[in-house]
Amino acid sequence: DAGVTQSPTHLIKTRGQQVTLRCSPISGHKSVSWYQQVLGQGPQFIFQYYEKEERGRGNFPDRFSARQFPNYSSELNVNALLLGDSALYLCASSPRFQGGQTQYFGPGTRLLVL
Amino acid sequence: AQTVTQSQPEMSVQEAETVTLSCTYDTSESDYYLFWYKQPPSRQMILVIRQEAYKQQNATENRFSVNFQKAAKSFSLKISDSQLGDAAMYFCAYIWSSGGGADGLTFGKGTHLIIQP
User: Residue B80 is part of which domain span?
Assistant: First the structure.
């Protein structure tokens, strides 16, 4: 079975631009979460989506938004990019919306903002 | 807010020996889950082991086992018979069960594990 996939793998943008990152969950998984991992730190929670609805949001500005599609894939959008948005963006999927569900991570998208 | 602390930024162990990685957490909840994830240089986060807080029995997965001390809010990972492939960043993570996962996983800062051949 295919794991969580993310695209693109790497991305370079300039300050002020907008970026869209994509994630496809494991087949059968209905919940997708997004995390930001700055170099040298643990991942930080951005969003969780389940059945196309936002179920949780971390402490990130409104420049960050996401959505989930009927096939349970998801997009993360970041507007007005700042240098500090440079990070590895991880997507994780889980079967259902429950705290104890194991989250399975994708390989990530490396975003560099110049 | 929940916090997860990994006090060892880096650990080194000889191949075939045993190493223990420390993790403490702070929460006012009684029902939660704890995880250890491994992140090798390829950057893919891989689940190592999962522990339900309501279970007193410590979780084990082959060479990996945990020492879960709920009262002390401690969750250490023991790796036995260390192998070169175990070299990676190890992250301890917490999630509140009753919240439905809406708060996401809270991660520690990680411990860099080096395996000496």
Answer: 3-116
